[in-house]
Amino acid sequence: MEPQRELVQQLFEAARALDPSKRSQFLNRVCEGKPEVLPVVQGLLSADKHAASDLAEPLLRGANCLEATTAASGEWHPQPGQDSRITFAPGHILNGRYAVVRFIAKGGMGEVYEVEDRFLQNQHLALKTIRRDLAEDVAWRQRFEREVVLARKVVHPNLCPIYNIERSDPLENENVTYLTMKLLEGETLAARLCRDEAMPPDEKIAVLKQLCDGVSAIHKAGIIHRDIKPNNVMLQGKGPDVAVCITDFGLARERDSDTLLSGKGLIAGTPDYIAPEVLSGHSLSQASDLFALGVVAHQIFTGEKPGRSAAGQVPIASPALRQKGTPEAVAQLIEGCLSEDPQKRTEAFAGFSHTIGVGSGISPLSPRRLASRHLLWLAIPLLMIPLGIIAANRYLFVSAGPGGSLAVLPLTNRTGDSKLDFLASGIREALTNDLSRSRGLDVKAESVTRRFAGSNIDPQSAGRTLHVKSVVNGSITFADQSLHVLIELVDVKTGRQVWGKTYEGTLSELASLQSQISTDVAYKLKLKFDSDARERFKRQYATSSAAYTFYLKGRYHLAERSPEALQEAIIDFQRSLDQDPEYAPGYAGLADTYTLLGYYRMEQPIPLFQKAIAAAQHALELDSTLGEAYVSRAAVRIFLNFDWSGAEQDYRRAIELNPNYLQGHTWFALSVLIPTRRMTEAAAQLNYAESADPDSPVTLFSLAMLNYTSGNYDKVVALLGPRCREAAQFESGCKLLVYSLLFKERYEDVIRLLEAPPADHEMAVSCSELLGIAYARSGQRMKALAKLKIAEAGFKEGRFISFQTALLETALGRNNQALDMLEVAYARREPDVIFAPVDPMLIPLHSEPRFARLLDKMKLGS
Fold it and tell me: C-alpha angle 738/739/744, rounded to 5°?
C-alpha cells in the first residue's frame, strides 16, 4: 500500500471510531499541513455512512486475515498498487555472511527473509529490511534503527530477540539497511484467530499469560510498544505448551516521550487497538498498551473485537465474554483494560499479574483448571505451567521431537562397586541439567526422578507415573579400565526404544564423554543449542577429567546433606579445584556446601558464610551463567549482610538461567519472600517446586514455614504430622509442627511427643527447648524453667541455639531475656533470625522498641 493511501486508511479508521461530533476537530488537527488528505478522508466517512466504502470493516477484516497467514505460509501476493518486486532472491549472500534461504513476507516497513548465518555455524535467522521507497527518508530510517535500540533494552522469553542492525556492502547492487532477529517458526496470533478451529481453553490461558509477561517486561524497561495486536504476536506450538513471542518494536517509544502522531503524521498504532485517550489527542502512556492488550485478549476469548459504546469511541466487552465461561479473573482483566480510565487499566493489570505471578518467571500449572468457572482464583498463585515455557529464549529453534516432556531416570550401576555410584548419579544429573535448558521441553527435576533408582526400573511404568512422553534410561559398567555407559531414549506410550547408544571410554575421558552424551541426546530430541548454550556446555566440560570426576563426587556427597557427607563434599570440590583452579562449577559446589553447613549451624555460621560468598563470587567471575552459584550467593547475602534486594536479583537470575533448579525456587521463597512478608509470591514459588517434586523434604518444610508464619496451623499439622510421629525421627520441620500444635492448644500431644527425646545429644537439647515452650504455654512454669536451664547450658557450650532459646524466653514472658538472645542470634548470624518479623511465637515482642531496632538492623523494619 502506498504511504499516502496508508495514511488515508489509518486516519479514516481512527475518525470512524470516534463520536461523529468529534471527528471534524480530530481531522482538522491531525491533517494540519496535509490539505490533500483531509477531503479524501471526509469523503470516505461520508461514503461509509451509506455503507458504500471500499474500506468498510468486512473488507478490512478479510485483508487482516490474509495478511495474518502470509508469514506462516511463506507465500505472498502483492495487493493492487503494491510493489511486486522483492529485493533478494534465494541464494543471495549479504555482506559475505547471510545466505538468503527464502522470502517470508512483505510488510509496511519492508521485507522479511529467512537467512543462514555462515559465521555462526549456519544458524538460521530472520532478516528484516527497510522498504526501498522509504530507505532514503531520514525519519523512517531512524524509526527502523530505533526498533533495534529499544528491542535490545529488554530481553525476555516472550519478546522476539533482535541481534544486530547492519547495512549491505555499498558495492552490492542494492544498498539495504536491515536487522537480524530470531527466526520464529509458527504463525501469528491473527492467523490462529482467523482459522475456523477454535482455540482450546488451556491454549487461551497460556497465550494470555505469556502476553502479559511480555508486556510487563516491556513496561519494566520503560518502553511503550504502541502496536500490540494479533499480527505482532507469534505462536509456536499449540495447546498449553504454546510459546508466545511479541514482535515489531517499530512504533515503540520511551515512556512518556511521544504523542499521537509518528513519522510523517501517521497514527501511532492500529486504530482498533488505539486507546480512547490517544484518539482524543492525549499523550501515550503504558496504559495505552494495556488497552490494546485488552482488545487482543477479548479476541482470544470471544473470537471477536469488542463492541462500541453509543458514542462510538469506548469499546464495550461483548456479552459473549461472560457467556462462554471465561474465567472470572480473565474477564475482569479484559473489562478493566478496556476501561476509558487509564488508571483502571493499570489496576486491572496489576491485580491480574499479582494473581498469576506475571513477571516472576512463574506460570499456571494447569490452564485447564483456570478455564473452570468453579476455580477459586485466590489459589492461582499455587498453580504453575510446564518448565519448557518458562525456559524460553535458551534455544534458537526447537523441533517437537518425540514429545514435549521428558525424564532422565537414574542410571543403574552394574559395576558391582558402590564407590562408583557417584558416576551414575553424576551423569544423570548433568544430562538432566543440560536438557532442562531447552525451550519447549518439560524436563523433570533430578530430585523427582531419584526415587526410581534400582536395578529393575521399568521405563514405561516410570514415565507414566511421571506423566512424561519420553524417558532416558541407562546403566554403567566398568571392565578392563574402560567405562561403558548405555543410554536409551524410550517412548512412554508404546514402550519402544526410539534410540540407544553405548559410550565407551576411560575415567580420564569422563568430561568429554559426558559432553558427547548430552549433545547426542539433544540431537535425537531435535533440540538446537544457541550460542550461549553451546558456550555454557564448553565451560562445563572444558576441564580435566580428574577435575570433573572429583566434582561429580562432590555433588554426590552434597546431595546427602549429612554433616559427614558435607565435609566429604568440601574435600572433593577442593580436589577438583586443585586439578583445575579455573573450574567454575567446583567453586559453585564449594559455595553450596559452605552455605548448607552454616545454615544447619554445624559450625560457626559467619566464617562459613564468608567462605561461601567468596566461592560463589569467584564462580560467577569465571562463569556468569551458573545458576547454582547465584543461589548460593543469594542465600549468603541474606544470612551475612541482610542484602534483600541483591539476593532477590540473584535468585531471579538463577531461575531465569535454569528454571528446573528447584532449590532456587524454594530458597527464594524461604529466605527472601517469607521474611519480607510477601506470602503470595512465596506460595507461587513453593507450589511451583512442589508441582515438580511433591516429595521434596526441603519444599515440604518451606511450605510448612509459609503456612506457619501465615497462621495456617491446621495446614502445617496436615503437612508435617505424618513425617514426625516419633521423636527419634525428629527433623527441623517438626519444630513447626510443635509450634502449630501449641497454637492449637494441643499441649498434651506435644508433651507426649517430646518427653522421650532422641539419643542424639543435639536433638535432645532441641527437644528439651521445645518441651520447655510447651510447658510454658500450658502453664507449667517450673518445668519450663527447668528446660530453660538445659538450654542455657547448651548455649554456654557453644551451641547455636540463641533463636530457639529466645522463643522459650518469650513463652515464659521474659521479654528482655528473649531480646538478649535475639541480639546474640543476630550477632552470630544464626540463620533462624531472619524469621523474627514473621514468627508468631515472637508476637509478644512486637511492641518492644528493642525488637523494632533489631528489625531495622536486619533491614526488615516496617
Answer: 95
Take residue 820 and report the three cell numbers written for it. 538478649
| pLDDT tens-digit map of 285-340 | 888 899 999 999 999 998 888 876 555 456 788 888 887 778 888 999 999 999 98
Q: Comparing 251-255, 508-512, 601-605, which segment has the lowest mean pLDDT?
A: 251-255
Q: Which of 610, 628, 660 is the last residue of a domain?
A: 660
Q: 269 with 345, same domain?
A: yes
Rounded CA-CA distance 677/221 in Å is 26
* Cell digits of residue 704: 510448612
Q: What whole-number distance in Å separates Cα of residue 664 and Cα of residue 649?
A: 12
Asked if the structure places residue 144 within a domain, the reply is no
Q: Which one, of 13, 18, 113, lies nearest residue 63 by Cα?
A: 13
pLDDT digits (tens, 9 = 90+) for 534-578: 566 666 666 787 888 898 888 888 888 788 889 999 999 999 999
Number of structural domains found in the chain: 4
List of residues 6+ apart from 538 with CB closer than 8 A: none
Strand residue runs (E) in 756-844 = none
Single-letter residue type at 216 = S
Q: Are residues 547 and 494 in the same domain?
A: no
Cell numbers representing residue 561 in the block: 546433606
Same domain, 244 and 333: yes
* Shared-domain flag, residues 331 and 193: yes
Are 406 and 470 in contact by the 8 Å Cβ rule? The answer is yes
Q: Give the type of residue at 439.
A: R
The rounded percent of the chain whose pLDDT value lies above 90 is 21
Q: How far apart are CA 717 and CA 728, in angstroms?
A: 18
- 673 within some domain: no
